[in-house]
Specification:
The longest helix has 36 residues. The strands form two sheets. A seven-stranded mixed sheet has the order 1-7-6-5-4-2-3, with helices on both faces. The chain has a four-stranded antiparallel sheet with strand order 8-9-11-10. By secondary structure, the chain is of the alpha/beta class. The chain has a domain of 239 residues: Aspartate Aminotransferase, domain 2 (3-Layer(aba) Sandwich).
């Protein structure tokens, strides 16, 4: 095989590349248009239909297929997917603003592996700058250090590792080390504690489903009497179920008095600190040692774009140490040029995640993004108003940040039957495809949960969703009689 053939084996000629990018760009525009108008699903497909669509039972292709056929199959796959439409209220996931979509394409085209300044100097500088801007946006710190990770789960795991190394001796018995979080905290924290082999205590919640600070003090005291070593408390700034924000200032007082690392899981809720009306809820956030924020949850950038922010620039290197492999040895004494992300987290290979948030912050500016968050909170409050006005719907919790939890209550249905009724209603709603809610348990009751993190959502979208819930709920109630 000649040299020219080897060089062109996987490439496209210039005209072919231009045609490919034009076609893909048109498909991307179609996806953005579909996300703007909905529905959530064009036509929900079964697992069997999807397997047929992707040739799931076919053997590995040994010869390629025509590009036109491949792109047509991709178009069908995207059409079968779940879209973050204006009535998608299921999970904590914002739609990607167009600037972030463009940034993600550029990230893939550049394909930089952001391990260190030496490997990707421009990308490293963008990431460190964006971390600092993010810290300023949420009121954590204007000089924050940290790094981008896949999401909240990886950020929480990394934070617990940093806390472990910062608040215990290297030879400490990890089984005696204890981390604390509320009963409403995300399950990724418990998984992280199990992964690093430390003990974990769930602390009861009090009013507003916020961590009970007196219960936290009692748990710490009991563990110390039992010769355990408390080392970290994790506060939640926006619980996944109801959007509750723990009393951060009071928890910070406990952490300071007990010499514990304070990590705040703000994966969902921390951006709401930029909303002037919500800012008092986050008092004390600036006292945390570390903070998790997922920009793909409520800052309108594509998945994945999680971040771990830290107050102390030396906390990461203390936890992870300097790599001593010869091939990663830094050959400079200049501070900026010697920076390496492997000293601050678990990953070595790292995608250029920061570009989409850097471009989003620069293009829209902090004030415009904060206004979008304020809008989402207002939409959740509007939903709660409409639920209160309905005779067939019951509000199960006051709206927290942008989350509203309620249930359908058909006239005459016994309370004991309402959980099963709403479970079946939720399944019917998700299969319908026009709107999408998820579920939560609020004070022991099954709830339909709406989380609104979509700058495109309007009052009309909220009211159409509630009308659909009532219609499908009435239909199911009639079938059950």
């Amino acid at each position: 095989m000649g040299e020219e053939a080897r060089n062109d084996m996987l490439d496209l000629p210039d005209e072919g590349l231009e045609a490919l990018l034009a076609r893909v760009g048109a498909m991307a525009a179609q996806e953005i248009a579909a996300t703007r108008s909905g529905p959530v699903f064009d036509r929900p497909l079964s697992a069997g239909q999807l397997e047929e669509l992707v040739d799931g039972a076919a053997p590995l292709p040994l010869d390629g297929e025509p590009l036109e056929d491949l792109l047509e199959r991709c178009r069908a796959l995207l059409g079968a997917g779940r879209r973050t439409a204006p009535a998608f209220f299921g999970y904590v996931l914002s739609p990607a603003a167009p600037i972030g979509v463009a940034a993600d394409l550029l990230t893939s085209a550049a394909d930089q592996n952001v391990t260190s300044w030496r490997s990707a100097p421009a990308a490293t500088q963008v990431e460190r700058t964006t971390i600092r801007w993010l810290g300023e946006f949420v009121g954590f710190a204007s000089d924050a250090e940290g790094l981008f990770v896949s999401g909240g789960s990886m950020a929480n795991l990394t934070a617990l590792l940093v806390a472990l190394r910062s608040r215990s001796e290297p030879d400490a018995d990890r089984r005696a080390l204890i981390a604390y979080a509320s009963h409403e905290a995300h399950f990724s924290i418990e998984k992280a504690a199990a992964a690093i082999g430390v003990g974990f205590r769930r602390v009861p919640v009090g009013a507003g489903r916020r961590l009970d600070v007196e219960a936290l003090r009692g748990a710490i005291a009991a563990d110390r009497r039992a010769a355990k070593q408390p080392f970290c408390v994790i506060a939640t700034a926006g619980t996944t179920a109801t959007g509750a924000v723990d009393p951060l200032d009071a928890i910070a007082d406990v952490a300071e008095a007990e010499r514990l690392w304070l990590h705040v899981d703000g994966a969902y809720g921390a951006p709401a600190a930029a909303d002037p009306a919500s800012r008092p809820l986050f008092s004390g956030l600036e006292r945390a040692d570390s903070l998790c924020v997922d920009a793909h949850k409520w800052l309108y950038v594509p998945v994945d774009c999680g971040a771990l922010l830290m107050r102390s620039p030396g906390a990461g290197p203390t936890a992870f140490g300097a790599a001593d492999a010869a091939y990663v040895r830094i050959l400079t004494d200049e501070a900026a040029e010697s920076f390496a992300f492997w000293d601050h987290g678990l990953e070595l290979s790292r995608r250029f995640r920061a570009l989409k948030l850097w471009m989003t912050l620069r293009y829209y500016g902090g004030r415009r993004l904060a206004a979008a968050i304020t809008h989402d909170i207002a939409m959740a409050e509007h939903m709660a108003v409409r639920v209160r006005e309905s005779t067939e719907l019951e509000l199960l919790a006051e709206p927290g940040l942008s989350i509203c939890c309620f249930r359908h209550v058909p006239p005459g249905m016994a309370d004991a039957a309402l959980d099963q009724h709403n479970e079946r209603l939720l399944t019917a709603l998700q299969r319908d495809g026009r709107a999408y809610l998820s579920n939560a348990v609020v004070d022991g009751r099954f709830a339909l949960r709406a989380c609104i993190t979509n700058f495109r959502t309007t009052r009309a979208d909220v009211e159409r969703t509630l009308a659909l819930v009532r219609a499908l709920g009435d239909r199911r109630a009639r079938r059950g009689r």
